[in-house]
Design a protein that fits this description.
70% of the residues lie in helices and 0% in strands. It is mostly helical and 139 residues long. It has a domain of 86 residues. Keywords: Membrane, Transmembrane, Transmembrane helix. This is Divergent PAP2 family protein.
């Protein structure tokens, strides 16, 4: 069994998450454990699907049916990361403004949910780099 297809997306997630934590910590001027979650640079979701898609392209070729499935999945995930979660964030913002940030003692809803195009591109670049490294190193 070729574990590369399991390890590469896992490594892409780890690299993207570490980069996001490092970048958020620099921005916040403190360790950013509370800023872990949806949104931010780079997009973990984009890194994961890009690494899988690139790995299939490099190992199987773009004519392989698995590449078509992977590219389709990538588009779905990336569109979700940008547009759908952006709408969820807008709804959270409106709910927070209506309720003054508190509903029955619950904390304020998180408003930053989606990704900007730059955050998505950084995630895709991270995923591609990890897949390339995985095939070069020979995971």
């Amino acid at each position: 069994m070729d574990l590369t297809y399991l390890l590469t997306p896992l490594f892409a997630w780890t690299v993207a998450g570490s980069l996001k934590f490092f970048i958020n910590s620099i921005k916040a001027k403190r360790l950013a454990f509370g800023l872990i979650g949806y949104g931010g640079l780079p997009s973990n979701h984009s890194a994961i699907v890009a690494s899988t898609t690139m790995l299939i392209a490099l190992k199987e070729g773009i004519a392989h049916p698995a590449f078509g499935v992977a590219i389709t999945l990538s588009f779905i995930v990336i569109l979700d990361a940008s547009s759908l979660r952006e709408q969820v964030g807008r709804q959270a913002s409106r709910i927070n403004s209506i309720t003054n940030g508190s509903v029955l003692g619950e904390p304020k809803l998180r408003e930053r949910m989606g990704h900007t195009p730059i955050e998505i591109l950084a995630g895709v670049a991270t995923g591609i780099a990890v897949a390339y490294a995985a095939t070069t190193v020979g995971l």
